[in-house]
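REVIEWER CHECKLIST
Item 1: Sequence provided? yes
Item 2: Single chain? yes
Item 3: Sequence as submitted:
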Amino acid sequence: MIQKIILGYKNLFFGAGKLLLLLLVCTAAGALVVLPLWKFATASPKAYSVFVLAISAAAVVFLTVRRIRRAGIASFAKSLLKFAIVAGGLFLCIILVFSGKRFLALPMLLAMIFLYGLVAFKK
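Item 4: Structure as written out by the authors:
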């Protein structure tokens, strides 16, 4: 009976120790990534901006090419068109609302929904 209690506390403390170790490892890894980037950003903001934009552009190109290879160009173009319809429709609705033309925003929203339906559900 005492052995079960001791084993239970042993498992509890080992579990808490693993959790604490994981927390420390994650904190150290985060610091190793963030601190050099913070130093770079404060020392040379323009170079950091160019670096971040270049990395972001490379990631977008990589993900786009990978998506085209996996799904095909037709599927990618259809997805891009659906995204453009939704993004453009919402952007125009917001512009119309902020410019005071709220009554025109509703037909724009309905047109966006209709166009999206045509593209997404057409066989």
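Item 5: Key structural point noted by reviewer: The chain has a mean pLDDT of 93.
Item 6: Recommendation: ____
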